Amino acid sequence: MSIRIGTIGSGKIVEQFLTAVKNCQGVEYGVAYSRTEERAREFAEKMGAPASCHDLEGLVHSDLADCIYVASPNSLHFQQAKAALEAGKHVIVEKPAVSNLGEWKILEETARRNGVFLMEAVRHVYDPAMDAIRRGMGEIGTVRRASLRYCQYSSRYDKFRRGVVENAFNPELSNGALMDIGVYCVRMMGELFGYPEALLAHGIFLKNGVDGAGSILGIYPGMDVELSYSKIADGKIGCEIQGEDGTLVFSGVARPGNVALFRRGGEREVLWEEEDGWNLEYEIRTFAGWMERGDLRAADYRRALEMSGLEMKILDAARRQMGIVFPADGKGNQRVWHMI
Fold first, then answer.
1. 263 burial type by CB count under 10 A (0-12 exposed, 13-18 middle, 19+ buried)
2. Quick one: CA dihedral 9, 10, 16, 19, positive or negative?
3. How many other CB atoms are found less than 10 A from the CB of residue 158?
4. pTM for this one?
5. Three state DSSP letters for the chain
């Protein structure tokens, strides 16, 4: 079975995704979409797509795309993914999948109704390092604290400091540090510990009202989880999960990297060593496996949908505390966001 991919977007993440596609047997690039004909054609030639288009309807009905990968600005994800799902295309949508939980519920229902698969591309979820982390958690006794960090100075922040606001720092596009980077921390917390019984969130805001950094404290019975994320400063400390009998240490959340277990007695055990290259291949291979099996009720697929919903629920709760409101939150069909 050969799966043909159509893409929406022409940024760096799309190039990295398509590089990963080349390393995935049975998956190939079919058609490139961009808002202008010239940009679509240039990107198709650069990345090796046999066709291009600048009309969304043409893309979602193209015979050269079985699956659409959506990597446009965050605020466009919902409408573009929904159009693809309604056209009977499978969809991989970059994180954050949508602006709020209400939009995610609509996408889930649209995918179910049309008998197609939907994935949020949160790459660490499908990285084997996550399995190593879960195994390690079984070796460190009762977990008391986790510190999950992703602080990376954005290449676009230099322009912002000079007064040029690009998409990454435009809150009107459902952007900001929480949605662009903090989402990785939120998803890992949800994957490992579920929804917290209480949550405290604080954001650091820039002059145009966008959040440039922030912290979230997830409170669980007998433990807490600290999330730290930033687009305006670099972090040099990795992540750790502290248990009564040992501590797990790993490089980060988007790319967990090497995972090591330190037992209370002082012994160190390497549970996972990072392989070369990006870890995008794992999500693509997982999605291809779902399509090949064709089972929309499969437990691993259903869990992935559930975890994306939980992630959006946490993001919505954190945004309410920080006062972050997007244009998408005011739509009539997004009343769910205000009710949670």
1. middle
2. positive
3. 10
4. 0.94
5. CCEEEEEECCCHHHHHHHHHHCCCCCEEEEEEECCCHHHHHHHHHHHCCCEEECCHHHHHCCCCCCEEEECCCHHHHHHHHHHHHHCCCEEEEECCCCCCHHHHHHHHHHHHHHCCCEEEECHHHHCHHHHHHHHHHCCCCCEEEEEEEEECCCCCHHHHHCCCCCHHHCHHHCCCHHHHHHHHHHHHHHHHHCCCCEEEEEEEECCCCCEEEEEEEEEECCEEEEEEEECCCCCCCCEEEEECCEEEEECCCCCCCCEEEEECCCCEEEEECCCCCCCCHHHHHHHHHHHHHCCCCCHHHHHHHHHHHHHHHHHHHHHHHHCCCCHHHHCHHHHHHHHC
Token duo for residue 129? 């390092």
Whether the predicted pLDDT of 340 surpasses 80: no
Q: Is 141 exposed, middle or buried (0-12, 13-18, 19+ CB in 10 A)?
A: middle
**pLDDT surpasses 50 at 336:** no
Residue 165 pLDDT level (bands cut at 50, 70, 90): very high
Give the count of beta carbons closer than 10 Å to the beta carbon of residue 217. Answer: 14
Q: Residue 39 has which token pair?
A: 């940009």
Residue 326 sits at the vertex; the CA angle it makes with 338 and 88, to the nearest 5 degrees, is 85
Looking at the chain, how many residues does it have? 340
Residue range 212-250, pLDDT digits in tens? 999 999 999 999 999 999 999 999 999 999 999 999 999
Which tokens belong to 102? 């209400």
Give me the amino acid identity at 251: S
The two tokens of residue 151 are 């602080």
Q: What are 84-109's pLDDT values in tens digits? A: 999 999 999 999 999 999 999 999 99
Residue 247 near residue 140, CB atoms below 8 Å = yes
Structure tokens at 120: 């949020």
User: What amino acid occupies position 282?
Assistant: Y
